Amino acid sequence: MSRTALRVCLLLLAALGRAGSEHDQDQEHGDEDVPHSSEKGPGHSHWSYEDREHWGVGYPDCAGTMQSPINIDTAKTIFSPQLRPIQLSGYSLPASEKLKLRNNGHTVLLELPETLAITGGYAQQYRAVQLHLHWGSPSGPGSEHTVNGHRFAAEIHVVHYNTKYDSVTEAMVYPDGLAVLGAFLEVGPRENPYYQEILQHLHKIQTEGKEVLVPGFNIAGLLPANMKFYFHYNGSLTTPPCYQTVKWTVFNQTMQLSHSQMSTLVMNLRNDDGKPLQNNYRLVQDLHRRQVLASFQTTLLSPKQTPSGSDASEAAEGHSGSSFHAGDVLAVLFGVLFAVTALAFLLYIYKHRSQNTRMDSPTKSKVIYTAASTENTA
């Protein structure tokens, strides 16, 4: 091999080594969507929501065609009866188990033990890693996903990774690697006891990098009680590095927080620049011909009916009621039609029996009634 060829090979190997190192750092310090150290190191990510339109420059996947969040147009969703209710396991934690709550400069993040898992609704099992929130400001809402163009006050994401992989860092680069459960938050009449388990500690972690240990509680209480109704699509992490490896579940029902609780979430934290941590949501991305599936019929839902509000008893626990679906309407219509048809038939029989009785006399032979053939007019 000539000296020139040898020099070229060495330069290529060095370039590949640097690329691999940068890729590893992106995996380790990707932000709230995956766990990472709160200490700033050589690979610390300095992206910000103010510069979100330019994320694709430093993180190529952020400019991909399977990005999240999206606007869910209920008129264009596809009803899929194959979508089964989401089932969770191990989500109720004892108070003796301490969980790390952290302000990472982009959001408030609660680390979760891997004993929490999604055991139903997906083809494979997914272990929990962490949950975090997205919100707006006193002047506007801040959910990431929208429904029929409607943005909700806030949104929770619970991040899981596929158990076929050894860790979330390994899983996050594979198409089936991650599963995120998302739910919308809105202001309601009562305090939500489950969210209070997080919100009551925010004053302790106001600045970036601060963390505190909080007692375990029923994490499932942060999500809708009814997990039958949801939207499903393939997308990405909503923050850099924006890997397009997330199977999204966005629940139809909203969770409710009191006005005071929502203010606590919006007003308490500061970002890594020392400014109020607000409007930490990404704008909706193009679908690029992706399909959004729904586990229920959505044709009769309006923007503010999806997700639906809660009744008084459910609001006390932070859960909301289900929407009135197209299937229910059809059932009522068929019931009414059946009742009308049955009544008409009985009146018809009664009328002809009366006529036959009047015609049945000694001077006349009995008339035998023969039903006329019917035509299928369907």
TrEMBL record:
Described purpose of this protein according to its UniProt entry: Reversible hydration of carbon dioxide.
Name this protein carries in UniProt: Carbonic anhydrase
Pfam families xrefs: Carb_anhydrase
SMART domains on file: Carb_anhydrase (SM01057)
Keyword field contains Membrane: yes
Organism of this sequence: Falco tinnunculus
Chemical reaction(s) catalysed: hydrogencarbonate + H(+) = CO2 + H2O
Segments passing through the bilayer: 329-350
InterPro entries: CA_dom, CA_dom_sf, Carbonic_anhydrase_a-class, Carbonic_anhydrase_a-class_CS
Entry GO CC: plasma membrane
Keywords: Glycoprotein, Lyase, Membrane, Metal-binding, Signal, Transmembrane, Transmembrane helix, Zinc
Gene3D superfamilies recorded: Alpha carbonic anhydrase
Signal peptide: 1-21
Family per record: Belongs to the alpha-carbonic anhydrase family.
EC number: 4.2.1.1
Domain annotation Alpha-carbonic anhydrase: ranges: 45-296
Chain segments carrying region Disordered: 21-49
Cofactor or coenzyme needed: Zn(2+)
Gene Ontology MF annotations: carbonate dehydratase activity; zinc ion binding
